[in-house]
Design a protein that fits this description.
Helix content: 10-25%
Structural class: alpha+beta
Bound molecules: zinc ion
Shape: elongated
Largest sheet: 6 strands, mixed
Mean pLDDT: 89
Number of strands: 8
Amino acid sequence: MRISLNQNVPIGVHVPYQSELVLSEQTFARPNITELTPVSFVGSLLRSEGGVMVEGEISYTLSTLCDCCLTPVTRQAKFSFSEFFGAEGTDEQEFDYALDGQVLDLTSAVTDAVLYELPGRIVCKEDCKGLCPVCGCNRNISSCECESLPDESNPFYALLLAQQDSEKK
Ligand SMILES: [Zn+2]
Ligand SMILES: [Zn+2]
């Protein structure tokens, strides 16, 4: 995702630009990735004296397992991207990203945008019931009797029993 500005991007003209970025699964720092397409950017560049405004849309597809019930999930990410790359000599503190001389490199900005947009949890549906912690059945598909069993590892379980005892008296 590197563009040489000199020949390709004249000042003051919206220049269409599209490119793909191959990210490694490690970049996503999450388990169970089964498929990952390259990240696509489709948009335009607008160069000024002070830098380059990059606007467009990012999309890619990630297949993984639901964080809650481990069924396969395919997530089609699609979101807008808008970032200004400051030219050298401008106050670099002012911008998150800067041009490298006459070269615009979108790699780190697009990678950052992808990771920022990635949800902390990927689930098969909003109200996924997950797996039963006792028998491991998928609670979206089947129900089990485990839910009615008290959780003996819970430190309040003993208190609860004691309380029930005293209530009986
Ligand atoms: Zn699920
Ligand atoms: Zn169960």
